[in-house]
Amino acid sequence: MPESEVVNQYAFILDAGSSGTRLYVYEWTRWSGGDSPLPEIRNPLSHKQTPGISNMVKDKELEGAYRAAGPAAASAARALLQSKVDEHLQPLFEKARQFAVGAGLDSTIIPLFVLGTAGIRDLLPDSERQYNDLLSCMTQSSRNTEFNLQECGAISGEAEALYGWISSNFTLIFPSLWSSGTLASKTLGYAEMGGASAQIAFSPSRAVSEPYNGVVWKVRLGDKRFELFLGSYPLGMDKGVELYFETLIAEHLKGGSSAHMLVTDPGKPPGLVKTFRDWTLEGPIYNGETIATSTTGTPKLGPQVGLVVNKLASIIASAVNSEGPRLPSLSEFDAAIKAHDFIGGANFWYSTRTLFGVDDEGKPKTTDFSFAEFRLEVFTTLSVPWDRIHEKLRHANPVYLKDAWIKAMWANEVLTRQFRLDDGDPRNPPRLEFKPFDGYVGMELTWTMGRLVHFITGNHATQRERDEVRGVQFRPFLDARAA
User: For 8-43, b where at least 16 C-beta lie within 10 A, e where not — what string?
Assistant: First the structure.
């Protein structure tokens, strides 16, 4: 077949998240456009560099440099940050270069995207100078590569929600319904949680338009058009754990225990001890209480465990509610959410299908997800001694494992109380199905693939509904100067 008819194409996308920067190498066959099937996308290589690039500006050496006064000090701080950004990104660029060489590719024509998320967004507004310097340093590092730089900057939360929605529907819906006239009405809703933010995206109900004024986005992929509600909130997993600890300690101090730097943490099993700043946090002691089992075989919480669980849930709810605006509490939003099946990605997957939600072989369960069963598993394991848990889960990352119960409850609170995705009893209407999903073997579900699909299908502008008259286009960057 002539080379012009079958051409493999490639792109490199860097996801500069709050916990690390990951390189994704993507490969696909040229798309013909229109109703022709979308190309299969492959991910032959990914590689992660830690910690998150936004942590560079929090480095003690850099903080001192930024506090110094005068133009010379500002220039020195900028140069120091540039060296740290180069050191962080260069191993990823080198991995990409080695892939290009190994595949016999002309690296100068391979598109490169370097996109930051909430970890960088959160530098604003308190650290605007560091924010601008960081993006400028990222751009300089990216331009010094041999690749074809397309974008470098921090995408907005709405863009992150959009790309996640595209990725999940490209994986599960578009292959079978792309040429169907019912595509727009059959799409999945999408929810994801990163380290610093959580996103939700779905097609709204148009029966009542007023609640969506200004928050509906008109999206185009090729010749297909969609209307989407896109929401992003400061409810990320890592941020949530820190907020939880701060709330727990604040409540401890309210009780008049300021002289003691030891706090009983309801989010830990007995025997687990962790330090947070100058505080020591330890799991409760249950005085031999075990989980009771009912006549139906369903575990029930004993009175001590029940009290601890209630306290854990209360602290989590308080921490979540301290973080600002949510989805509007309108019945129309609830109806639109209930009309969709939802996919849960990123930390919504990890918190429900890696430590909890696994079978006897330690593999993620493939059965339908139940919020009630998930919560019960979280609650009942809280009273199991830490040494037994640690022995059973020796394969697990100990850093993640120590906060697993807090992270699970944080995810539960955001999914059920904030995003309102708890189906209750799925046998009763209105029906809602929520499915944690991490992609397939060799193809992780990630918003970066959504950015790629948007690029492949034409990179069409996206408009917010209320901006259509003014012709305001959707820009994925918070600051155009950084692009």
Answer: ebbbbbbbbbbbbbbbbbbbbeebeeeeeebbebeb
Alpha-helical (H) ranges within 347-403 are: 347-353, 371-381, 386-392, 398-402
Judged by DSSP in three states, 373 sits in helix
195 annotated as belonging to a binding site for a ligand:
yes
CA–CA separation, 270 and 316 (whole Å): 19
pLDDT digits (tens, 9 = 90+) for 78-112: 999 999 999 999 999 999 999 999 999 999 999 99
Eight-class DSSP state of 54: G
> Which CATH code fits 8-154?
3.30.420.40
56 is written with which tokens? 């560079």
Please tell me the distance from the alpha carbon of residue 155 to that of residue 141, in angstroms, as a whole number: 18
Return the domain boundaries, the chain.
8-154, 158-234+453-467, 237-436
Contact 389, 404 (CB under 8 A): no
Q: What is the pTM of this model?
A: 0.88
Q: How far apart are CA 69 and CA 56, in angstroms?
A: 20
Q: Does 418 show up as a binding residue in the annotation?
A: no
CA distances from 382 to 1, 239, 291, 350, 386 (A): 61, 22, 10, 18, 9
Smallest CA-to-CA distance from 468 within 216, 271, 172 is with 216
Q: What is the DSSP string of 286-339?
A: -TT---EE-TTS-EE--HHHHHHHHHHHHHHHHHHHTT---S---HHHHHHHHT
Of the residues 151, 160, 413, 444, only one is catalytic, namely 160
Residues in a beta bridge with 275 = 280
**Could you tell me what percent of the chain has a pLDDT over 70?**
82
Peptide bond into 51 cis (omega under 30): yes
Query: Does the annotation place 196 within a ligand binding site?
Result: yes
Distance, CA of 444 to CA of 324 (rounded, Å) = 31
Q: Are 193 and 342 in contact (CB under 8 A)?
A: no
- Which of 289, 210, 223, 242 minimizes the C-alpha distance to 458? 223
411 annotated as a binding-site residue: no
Under-70 pLDDT residues of the chain: 1-6, 205-214, 256-259, 288-302, 304-305, 323-336, 423-432, 464-483
Is 189 labelled a binding residue?
A: no
Q: Is 27 a catalytic residue?
A: no
Q: Which residues have a Cβ under 8 Å from the Cβ of 158 and sit 6 or more positions away? A: 217, 230, 231, 232, 474
Q: How far apart are CA 51 and CA 89, in angstroms?
A: 11
Residue 480 CA, chain-centre distance (Å), reads 23
What tokens appear for 91 in the block?
A: 């191993």
For residue 216, the Cα-to-chain-centroid distance in whole angstroms is: 21
